[in-house]
Amino acid sequence: MLHLIFRNFSHLSRDARKIKDYLNSKGFIDEDDLYNVRLAIFELAGNVLKHSKRTALVQLKCEGDVIRIYIKGSNPFERGEITLPSVEEEYGRGIFIVSQICESLEYYDGGKEVCVCIKCKK
To answer: Residue ranges per domain, the chain?
Structure first.
């Protein structure tokens, strides 16, 4: 399992290599899968940093051909129905995009933790 701590946005790009190295060590080498995993992490951890201005705790766990990504923040996220926002909306596309690339997107602990499962080609 890979554990990451993001305290600001520069940590997201700093740890991009750690994510790639971890996935490669587990046999996940497809660039599209790597892109999807990093997109999910950057979007969801970025939301924690942006909206709670606190630390985002991230864990990656490989189980067969599925990568589970756990992201925990300090403030709850109130998730409604996930839909594509209208063109006029400035925000809200990230969760929709993540929901399209993953097998599941579930919230726990009153919205403080999210688990994303991404099935990979491996």
So the answer is: 2-119
Residue 102: CB partners within 8 Å, gap ≥ 6? Answer: 36, 40, 116, 117, 118
- How much is the pTM? 0.85
Q: What is the tens place of the pLDDT at every residue in 64-112?
A: 999 999 999 887 666 666 666 676 776 667 888 898 999 999 988 888 8
Fold entry, domain 2-119: Heat Shock Protein 90 (3.30.565)
3-state secondary structure the chain: CEEEEECCHHHHHHCHHHHHHHHHHCCCCCHHHHHHHHHHHHHHHHHHHHHHCCCEEEEEEEECCEEEEEEECCCCCCCCCCCCCCCCCCCCHHHHHHHHHCCEEEEEHHHCEEEEEEECCC
d(CA 66, CA 72): 19
